[in-house]
Design goal:
7 strands; alpha+beta; disordered N terminus
Length: 188
């Protein structure tokens, strides 16, 4: 009899706690998966935050000079990864840099069946860690997210990546730094 009493009290207590947690007009639920299933399954990029500094993706998305890069990052499915805490150093080609790539090549890379190739190229533009321009020295090599290496050179006060892309500006973000470059880096 005592056992039945304890089960009854435990059941009433559980029902009371669940009912207190429910909003007015909503049925109480004791299924913990019901709440998880109803929440948005989007990643870090879906977090609404209008007060913090912008991450590297939001900085790029807010600048009209990066529309091609942002479209490529979306197509490659890398928005959530680059919206995470980082820190990241992103060597970000401008639209003008992408204009130097043959149009047919760029269009082909934006196709669903070329997603892996697009990811490889974009990940070649990302270093995990914070590399301010003052840390970039002539002859240094850095391992990028895709596993490839980039080489830094300095000439006439300019910082050049792989001998082909020059850093033209630097923008800080909440989860890293963006070095704006005038060329697209291609992995070997």
């Amino acid at each position: 009899m005592k056992r039945i009493f304890h089960f009854a009290v435990a059941g009433i207590l559980a029902a009371s706690i669940t009912a207190c947690g429910a909003r007015s007009g909503e049925p109480a639920t004791t299924d913990p998966t019901a709440t998880a299933a109803s929440t948005n399954a989007a990643g870090q990029s879906a977090v609404q935050d209008d007060e913090s500094a912008k991450d590297v993706v939001k900085v790029a998305a807010s600048n009209k000079d990066f529309t091609t890069l942002v479209a490529a990052v979306k197509q490659a499915g890398l928005v959530d990864a680059l919206s995470n805490a980082g820190p990241f150093t992103v060597f970000a080609p401008t639209n003008a840099a992408f204009d130097k790539v043959p149009k047919e090549t760029l269009e082909a890379l934006m196709q669903a069946d070329k997603k892996a190739d697009l990811q490889n190229i974009l990940q070649y533009h990302v270093y995990v860690g914070m590399l301010s321009e003052s840390l970039l020295q002539d002859g240094q090599t850095f391992n990028q997210v895709n596993g490839g290496n980039i080489t830094i050179s300095k000439k006439d006060g300019k910082t050049i990546i792989n001998g082909t892309a020059t850093i033209v500006a630097t923008v800080k973000a909440s989860n890293g730094i963006i070095h704006v470059i005038d060329g697209v880096l291609l992995p070997k």
